[in-house]
Amino acid sequence: MRIDSKDNPRFKTWLSLLESAGIRKAGLALASGGRIVNELIHHPKVRDLVEAVLLPPSSEKLPSAARQFELSDQLYERLDEYGTGSPLLVIKKPAIENWSSGDPLPEGLVVVAATSDPANLGALIRSAHAFSASAVILTKECASAFLPKTIRASSGSSFKVPLFSGPRLSELRFPPSHAPVMLDLKGKDLSEHKWLKNSAVVVGQEGQGVPESLVGERLHIRMSDNLESLNVAVAASIALYSYANQK
Amino acid sequence: MRIDSKDNPRFKTWLSLLESAGIRKAGLALASGGRIVNELIHHPKVRDLVEAVLLPPSSEKLPSAARQFELSDQLYERLDEYGTGSPLLVIKKPAIENWSSGDPLPEGLVVVAATSDPANLGALIRSAHAFSASAVILTKECASAFLPKTIRASSGSSFKVPLFSGPRLSELRFPPSHAPVMLDLKGKDLSEHKWLKNSAVVVGQEGQGVPESLVGERLHIRMSDNLESLNVAVAASIALYSYANQK
Questions:
Q1: pTM of the predicted model as reported, rounded to 2 decimal places
Q2: Cα-Cα-Cα-Cα dihedral of B30, B35, B41, B45, to 10°?
Q3: In 3D, which of B11, B56, B22 has the Cα closest to residue B148?
Q4: What is the pLDDT of residues A179-218, one digit of tens each?
């Protein structure tokens, strides 16, 4: 089927997926990028969630069971925010369970993210996946895991990691099963930390860190130039690496 | 002085600083972000390079010796790509020396970057600074270190780290003083690597890695899920952390 009109109801829904509110309302997400799209349509956890394939004019269909739409140049370009030129996927947003403070957590390393920049959140989700975190809890401050930018930076991992929707950063409280660890600019040197198998790593907001009121071990990454700080996804990934390296 | 016309020659020069070609031609760069700008106007390496402060309408002057210009809303918004709402800085691009294959390198850890995404390059430069790399060599494939996006992601470190302009990735050859180390998806486990004090870490292009022809030790970051990879700035930063941790 071909779509040329910007007033087409399907197109209007897809366009709304460029913003968090539209994603929430439609329960759908838009994924782009040749390599990522190709990987997602074959991934056992994702392929059945693909609801539509959006093709640029006169391009070949993808090997997917989902319905395929050809878009006019103009419509396609509005959805292809990153100028990939490749087919886009409309994917059902996986169910995200609520996690309330004190609720049980899965065994292993749980990452709690409050990053407000979608590119940082995506890179962090990608690292959480690569280092086999058992869950990623997104606090109320956190960006949406299903914005096109987050999905892209996550390299598709947004659809593969078990995600939970958590409370505000300041309201976090962990069950006794998990040792809470806060990434901070001060605290114990990360390289001296002995990780417990069940740990919950809290990653604060860009430039703001973790509220002082939160109880737990504070770890910092020793830097040669102590005036500096690291990108939040970089800092969190170094902590995940340190955990994975001990386990 | 107030500028309202988009035909003003100064404004046209500033506008050109949103692209690599304009930066090269003018020898200037544009920095944005309240915290970054405030830090750069006081930094001993940078404050004398500030050539102009660009203020949004009716905002206060900054404590800088540089000439200050008030822009109309419309002109300011075209330069303030990230919607910071804060004053922008026009800064003389620091001199970047050429480094040719085989040339001597400064002692310590040298980072060789071929990352084509400015946000990744910025995060990498920020980490290189935080972990005291002695130099960052930008290969021909690499994005500009002085694009507004790179500067922003570097948190201003683009102006503080010794940068060199290098050859193409495939033409790299290092002097005997430095042990070349390539970040790759295969190779020795990073956690088992004994770093030499003088090392040159090569960070390839996004999704492409380091050419097979390059001679040197190949290191990979062990991941629990071996199908996955990390963001390039994340992977490189983990390697820098590993070096800094042994030194």
A1: 0.94
A2: -90
A3: B22
A4: 999 999 889 999 999 999 999 999 999 888 899 999 999 9
